[in-house]
Design a protein that fits this description.
Strand order of the largest sheet: 4-1-6
Shape: globular
Mean pLDDT: 85
Largest sheet: 3 strands, antiparallel
Structural class: mainly beta
């Protein structure tokens, strides 16, 4: 499908939105190793943090939001429309 992101906010450099073309590529749900010992899986269609705009991305199979939960930026989260 195509995902059009209209809003995205996370803790820059710590919390990430990964966009994937294959849901099977997601091997864990943990955040970056520098924050909580997990692995930072960068999505093959995009890897966004802070207030970077993901825009519109085609060929999306999965959207993954990873966070260390130590701090949540005001307005944290995303809004998107999926078109199949």
């Amino acid at each position: 499908g195509t995902v059009a992101f209209s809003n995205f906010v996370s803790e820059g450099g710590w919390d990430f939105l990964n966009v994937w073309s294959n849901a099977g590529s997601i091997v864990n749900v943990w955040g970056p190793s520098t924050s909580n010992g997990g692995i930072d899986n960068s999505g093959d269609l995009g890897h966004f943090s802070g207030t970077e705009s993901p825009g519109t991305i085609a060929g999306v199979a999965a959207v993954q939001f990873i966070t260390d939960w130590s701090y949540m930026e005001p307005g944290t989260g995303f809004s998107a429309t999926l078109t199949c």
